[in-house]
Amino acid sequence: MQNDFDTNHPELGIQILGVNGAGFAGGNGSITSGRDAPWLQDLDGNNDGLSDVWASWGVAYRDVVILDADNAKVGTFNLTTYNLQVPENYDTLRQLFINAATVPEPAGLTLMAIGAAGLFPFMRRRKNYLRVCLKGM
Amino acid sequence: MPTSTKNRTKIWSLTGAFVVFLALSAGCPVAFSGPVMPDFLLEDVNATSSTFGQPVSPRDYLQQVSGWYFGHAT
């Protein structure tokens, strides 16, 4: 998918990284073979049997967590539940990334702002008319 | 219909249209983000990655969208 973004949407600057669970470092050579995406090795610094970052982010095995440009979580997509070999799942995850990279702010708020800006001149023009109406009540 | 009643009807129509507009706007598809995720620093162990051997943080990817896959190297 990283190659897909790099080829088809380089302007979006989407970056995918992997975080390996603590205790699984033995397989790092094979999983990174032929891949150039960053592969980060998580640790169990407090010896509680949990991968520290996995625990602090509250993730499950094979979760993909999408962050926006402020490092805020946009969503989580589990690759065991939604196998990427299924084209619909691939397209769904791909679109989640693209949406996150192309929606700068809540569309509803933008529409409300545009709507309000458009109504103010109308309301000003109708000011005298409204005064007359209110007097008549 | 008396003039005052007509005027009231017009005002309520305008107000109603504006309320409906706000309601519809609020119902549009919105990409709300959740909480800012905790920071961390982990070493990149992929020898072919451009950041190999360096500590990597989510904060390195501010101003861009990033995806974090949590897996096991087996």
Keywords:
heterodimer, A: 137 residues, alpha+beta, two-stranded parallel ribbon, two-stranded antiparallel sheet, 4 strands, 15% strand, B: 74 residues, two-stranded antiparallel ribbon, 32% helix
Write a structural description.
The complex is a heterodimer of chains A (137) and B (74). Chain A has six helices and four strands; from the N terminus they run αβαβαββααα. Chain A is an alpha+beta fold. Chain B has one domain. A two-stranded antiparallel ribbon of chain B has the order 1-2. The longest helix of chain B has 24 residues. The interface between A and B is large, with 70 and 52 residues. Strand 1 of chain A pairs parallel with strand 3 of chain B.
Write the layout of secondary structure elements.
The complex is a heterodimer of chains A (137) and B (74).
Chain A: H1 2-8, E1 15-20, H2 28-32, E2 39-41, H3 52-57, E3 63-67, E4 73-78, H4 87-102, H5 107-125, H6 127-136
Chain B: H1 3-26, E1 42-43, E2 55-56, E3 66-71
Antiparallel strand pairs in B: 1-2
Give a short summary of the structure:
The complex is a heterodimer of chains A (137) and B (74). By secondary structure, chain A is α+β, with helices and mostly antiparallel strands.
Mean pLDDT across the residues of chain A is 86
Strand percent estimate of chain B = 5-15%
Q: Kindly provide the radius of gyration of chain B, computed on alpha-carbon positions and rounded to a whole number of angstroms.
A: 27 Å
CA-based shape of chain B? rod-shaped
- Integer tally of domains of chain B: 1
For the record, the count of structural domains of chain A works out to 2
Percent helix of chain B: 25-40%
Tell me the Rg of chain A in angstroms. 24 Å
- Intertermini distance of chain A: 64 Å
The ordered H/E elements of chain B are: HEEE
Main interface by residue count: A-B, 70 and 52 residues
**What is the total tally of β strands of chain A?**
4
Helix and strand content put the structural class of chain A at alpha+beta
Average pLDDT level of chain B: 81
Extract low-pLDDT stretches of chain A: none
Widest sheet: strand ordering of chain A: 1-2
Instruction: Point out poorly predicted stretches of chain B.
Output: 24-30
